[in-house]
Design a protein that fits this description.
This protein has 251 residues and is of the alpha/beta class. The protein has one domain: TIM Barrel, CATH 3.20.20. It is 43% helix and 15% strand. It is built from eleven helices and eight strands. An eight-stranded parallel β-barrel has the order 1-2-3-4-5-6-7-8, surrounded by five helices. Helix 5 packs across helix 7. The model has no long low-confidence stretch (mean pLDDT 96). 2-phosphoglycolic acid binds next to strand 8.
């Protein structure tokens, strides 16, 4: 059985006091929930304090990015070991906002995925088509290139350790969610692609859906065979919404 994961991507929101307050609120309601697995990804500056707040709860901590080198003269960047030592378990890699605003290519994402795995972080690797791709019928081609490029060189054992998030770019922060059927179609395509490349490793990978997930539409999405959770942006900042998503997502 695949692990169901509900991950909150707080993006560039929340000062450290605000972040710890939100984390405390989550602990009060879902802090002992083992299934689904709950992961929160605050900004870097809040990670250390949120890590302390989460101690003793079942909520996991994630980062929103990392650099693809272990240390050195890379001003402003963060190495995976820095994240691990403060209690971060997951790291979002290749989010469409990183790809779009920070020119992250599949090969950069691939470097990051490899280093995250080597270091012991669990990568949440994001893929997703833009609206013109979908309108031209190119969704599967685009996703295939991103999957192949981002996961290049990994073996079957490594692939078992990663999480994938399918996030159609046109659905992120727009209020336009893919219908459960549209999302399932792409999730099933992703699993098929993974099966071709990584054989049995593909069956256990959790593939999350992301893009305007909220407490109202989560259950319908989570009911689909190949949707194993959600990567939630805006609604993860609103405690009632995020708890609603966790509660309606099943185990
Ligand atoms: P959204 O963002 O839920 O606000 O659409 C999802 C994401 O970017 O991960």
């Amino acid at each position: 059985m695949r692990l169901k994961i509900i991950a909150g991507n707080w993006k560039m929101n929340k000062t450290t006091p605000e972040a710890t307050e939100l984390a405390r609120g989550l602990i009060a309601s879902v802090g002992q929930t083992e299934r689904p697995r709950v992961v929160i990804c605050p900004p870097y500056t809040a990670l250390s304090e949120v890590a302390k707040t989460l101690k003793g709860s079942s909520i996991f901590l994630g980062a929103q990015n990392m650099y693809f080198k272990e240390s050195g003269a890379y001003t402003g960047e963060i190495a995976p070991s820095m994240l691990l030592t403060i209690g971060v378990a997951y790291v979002i890699l290749g989010h469409s906002e990183r790809r779009e605003y920070f020119a992250e290519s599949d090969s950069i994402v691939n470097e990051k995925v490899k280093l995250a795995l080597k270091t012991g972080l669990i990568p949440i690797v994001c893929v997703g088509e833009k609206l013109p791709d979908r309108e031209k019928g190119l969704t599967e081609e685009v996703i295939a290139v991103q999957i192949d490029g981002s996961l290049a060189g990994l073996g079957e054992e490594e692939i078992r350790k990663i999480v994938i998030a399918y996030e159609p770019v046109w659905a992120i922060g727009t209020g336009k969610t893919a219908t459960p059927e549209m999302a399932q179609q792409v999730h099933s395509f992703i699993r098929k692609r993974l099966r071709e490349r990584f054989a049995a490793g593909a069956e256990t990978i959790s593939i999350l859906y992301g893009g305007s997930v909220n407490a109202e539409n989560a259950a319908g999405l989570m009911n689909q065979d190949d949707i194993d959770g959600a990567l939630v942006g805006g609604a993860s900042l609103k405690i009632d919404q995020f708890i609603g998503i966790i509660r309606s997502s099943g185990k």
